[in-house]
Amino acid sequence: MATDAFTPELLLHAALGIALAAAAGLRIFMPLLVLSVAAAGGVVELTGSLAWIGTTPALIVFAVATVVEIAAYSLPWVDNALDWLAAPLAVTAGVLLVASTLADADPLWRWVLAVIAGGGTAGAVHGASAVLRALASTTTGGLANPIVSTTEAGGSLAVSLLALALPLLALLLLAVALGLLIRAAARRRPCRTVSA
Known about the structure:
Layout: H1 8-26, H2 29-40, H3 56-73, H4 78-101, H5 107-140, H6 145-165, H7 167-188
Helix pairs in contact: 1-2, 1-4, 1-5, 1-6, 1-7, 2-3, 2-6, 4-5, 5-6, 6-7
């Protein structure tokens, strides 16, 4: 039953979806796989029209896609090419992850939140990781890319599991990480002087 009210339960479900969307920015299929396993095990209730995410065929597809994605991202330069292809998929996954976790939300608010928070979060995280990977490729000739890729895959899994266990904490930690990244980026900008 959809509700118009923002309840504590709805807040937890939104935090779960947004944290999973952030994980999708690192690896598209990892959080979908984690959500699929959780839904199949009865840990998470999915929105009716997106309940297919918790089915056995979806779980198998997400597992295979996760393995292929992790393997492809461990190849230097291939990972950079994948970033361009994966960007719209990450945003789409972010939208699906948020929408699927808001089973009791009014459909209008479910999709507004899914598109803005889910797609936006996944896109922002994916963009930041793509910049980091490109920097690693250019500064190390691609030698650091497997390390970056492994860190991203581990981060995606860790964020996904934390989101299931403690969704508000996962969202809080993501907000702190974002703040630290913005602060670090602001410090690295060279000061411009105005000459007369």
